[in-house]
Each structure stands twice: as C-alpha cells, then as structure tokens.
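Example S7 (structure tokens).
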C-alpha cells in the first residue's frame, strides 16, 4: 500500500540554526551571491536554486565588499543586483529611506560545512572562492555573534522611488544583522546543538591545525548595546542581509540564471534542496491475509488503494528518513466487504546524493476499520525501493511491500504490495 514523505535545509538570520526532522504514512504494506563564480554547469545548477534565498550571510564576502556595503548604508537604502550566487551593491542606484539600529540580546551561533552542496546552500556569496579550501581541509566552520540589526522600517519595495543607474537592480536591503564572526577551516571542537564548529572566545581550546579563513571583529567584544546607542566597538560587522525583491525585477533575473544553468548543462551537479520536505503519496496494489474475527472466510486477498501525507528528511548525504500517515481502502473479496486502514509508519532509505535510486525499510502500524465488525490493530515491517525524479526531486516513484500481524492474533498474518507515486513540496 502507499505512504508519504518529505525533506529540507535552511538558515536563520539570528540565533541557533534549527534542524527539523519528521515524516508520516500508513501502508498496507536549508542562496545567494558570490563575487566571481565558475561558469560550469555544476555551479550554475546550485546557484539557480540558491537564487531564491532572501537572507544571505555575508561573512564569506571579501572585506572590500563588506566595506562598500557599510559605506552605502549611510546615504539611504542599499539596492543590489542579485542572481544565483552573485550579488553586487549598486553604488549609483539610490533609494530613499534610512536604517535604524535595533539592539537585541547577544546571540551566538555557528555551523559546519563538509560538502560543496552545503557550501552553496549556506555561504553562496563566497562559495566559488571557498571550494578549494573546503577540498583541502575537508571542513569549514562559521561561528558568529549578533548584537542587533539595522532595519528600514516600513519600506515597501513596490513603492520605492529608485533614481540613478538602476537597470540591474533586483532587491533592496531592508535590514541587516551586525556583530562579529570567524570563518575557519580544519579541526574543530564540538558545540551544543549537535553542530561541530570551532570554539572561539575566552578560555576556548583551539586546535593547532585550525586556520582562520576570514574574520571580523571579536566575539568577546559583542556585549549588549546601551539603549539609544549603536553596536559596540569590535562588534559592528554585517553578518546577514535581509532582502526584499523589487517587483518585476528579481523574477526576471532568476529566470535568466536558470536558463544559463540549463545551457551550461543543468543536472550536472546535485542541486541545493531543502533537507526537510513534505510529500503526498497515492498508490494501489494488493493486500492479503488470514482469517479476520467474525469472518467466515479463510485466507483472503483483495485490491487496495491509499493516500498518504508525510515528511522526508535528508539525514546525511546518503540517508533519508521518512514518517508517513495514511488512509486507504482494501477490498476483502472473500467476505465481499471493504476495510478502511488508517496508519502511521517510518522508514530509513539509502540514497547517495548523486543517485535517483533508493532502497530502504522500516515499520509501523495501523487501525483497520471493518464495517459491522470490531476494528483491529496491525503492526508490520516494510521494505521499499524506487526512484526520486526531476531536477528539483519533486517526484517519488516506487514499490513497497510489507508483512505483519494483529496484536490479538485474530488476523494471524497479513501481507501487502503496492505501487506508489509521490509529489514533494516545501
């Protein structure tokens, strides 16, 4: 019978980076710009997906680019040209408005990067220039502190009056978080929340093999800002931007980027997709079993159909976890009646990131409603195999099979097999 799944990956502007994991079904059975990226198909494929990211980190930007940003904010709202993995501050494009500093409690966070896909998803602005360092050291880690953010108030991109050379404008910076950071490579220490990043600050242990790739300010300087004042000295570096698309401009830029990716060889590399996704399944097959209480029939078999909704989570580059909830209908041909199973199951699937094929297994249970009879509870084990298809891995086509029994033993054995088609969303 069928089931359902999903997957996802993302960033947060301030605070800890949350990692959500879940999935559901019954079965009868986390970007952005870089300065000068490579023009190969693999990179363009990643960048075309990253183009939808509206809260990019700018810690990987060269110091000169961050300085241009800081200098521009004094004269009004900052307008940028942003497409895929490239973002450029438009010095000669002006927009009215001003930024106001809003202090927050000091927040520290960090994350580690161990693959090119993670690099393009989390730090796209500098991904091209950091690929070599990641390949050499095997790991990059970012640790940062935030003391507040500059906000543009009620700035409405649809009402902004742009003046100057703005033909390439796609987004306006509606705010940005400030603080201090350190981007390192090599050996790291373990930090709370299950994320391994270098430990920076007073009394911190630092490995001899760890190297600082980029940094600005000092984490120890990030103290709560006094009321009515700006961020403290040593803790004023832009960490993350908050962007708003200019109507009619950003979509055209993203379309052009996607077209470029296709021309260069779309699909040449794994795209940066969310780790957690919802999925809807429909399926049909056959179910069979032994005697059911109050049924005069012996062994029986019948057709089945079901729908399922759930989540698929990418645990690692090679492993997916699904949780699915489902409802269906089974025809008990021997007793000339229909059974209605309501179920929940979970499974682990092996699928290397460069493959579309998967295989896995798991288990679960269901409550089966029998008209004019007593419902029964079924437990079962399951196996599944199939293919994830499409450039954005929307489609899941496969087969599932399982076997189990009821807790009461009134149904000594039950088996099932089904063909399923799923559609992922996020």
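Recovered sequence:
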């Amino acid at each position: 019978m069928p089931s359902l799944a999903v997957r996802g990956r993302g960033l947060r502007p301030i605070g800890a980076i949350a990692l959500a994991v879940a999935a559901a079904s019954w079965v009868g059975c986390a970007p952005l710009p870089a300065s000068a990226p490579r023009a190969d198909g693999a990179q363009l494929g990643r960048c075309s997906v990253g183009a939808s990211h509206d809260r990019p980190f700018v810690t990987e930007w060269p110091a000169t680019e961050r300085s241009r940003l800081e200098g521009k904010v004094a004269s009004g709202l900052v307008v940028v040209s942003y497409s895929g993995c490239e973002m450029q501050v438009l010095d000669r494009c002006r927009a009215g408005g001003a930024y106001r500093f809003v202090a927050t409690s000091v927040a520290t966070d960090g994350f580690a990067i161990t693959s090119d896909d993670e690099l393009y998803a989390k730090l796209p602005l500098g991904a091209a220039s950091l690929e070599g360092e990641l390949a050499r050291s095997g790991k990059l880690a970012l640790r940062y502190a935030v003391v507040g953010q500059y906000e543009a108030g009620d700035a409405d991109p649809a009402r902004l009056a742009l003046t100057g050379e703005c033909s390439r404008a796609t987004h306006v910076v509606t705010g940005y978080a400030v603080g201090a950071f350190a981007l390192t490579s090599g050996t790291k220490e373990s930090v709370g929340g299950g994320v391994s990043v270098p430990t920076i600050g007073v009394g911190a242990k630092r490995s001899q093999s760890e190297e600082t790739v980029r940094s600005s300010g000092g984490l120890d300087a990030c103290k709560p800002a006094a009321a009515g004042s700006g961020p403290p000295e040593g803790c004023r570096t832009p960490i993350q931007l908050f962007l708003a698309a200019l109507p009619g401009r950003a979509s055209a830029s993203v379309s052009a980027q996607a077209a470029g990716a296709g021309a260069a060889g779309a699909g040449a590399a794994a795209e940066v997709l969310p780790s957690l996704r919802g999925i809807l399944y429909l399926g049909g097959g056959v179910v069979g079993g032994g005697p059911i209480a109050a049924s005069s029939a012996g062994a029986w078999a019948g057709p089945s159909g079901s729908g399922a909704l759930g989540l698929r989570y990418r645990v690692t580059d090679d492993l997916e976890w699904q949780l699915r909830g489902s409802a269906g209908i089974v025809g008990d041909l021997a007793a000339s009646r229909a059974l209605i199973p309501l179920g929940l199951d979970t499974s682990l699937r092996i699928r290397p990131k460069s493959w579309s094929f998967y295989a896995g297994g798991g288990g679960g249970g269901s409550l089966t409603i029998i008209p004019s009879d007593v419902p029964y509870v079924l437990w079962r084990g399951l196996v599944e195999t199939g293919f994830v298809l499409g450039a954005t891995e929307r489609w899941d086509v496969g087969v599932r099979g399982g076997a189990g029994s009821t807790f009461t033993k009134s149904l000594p054995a039950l088996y099932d097999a089904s063909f399923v088609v799923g559609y992922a969303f996020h």
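Notes on this example. The longest strand covers residues 171-185.
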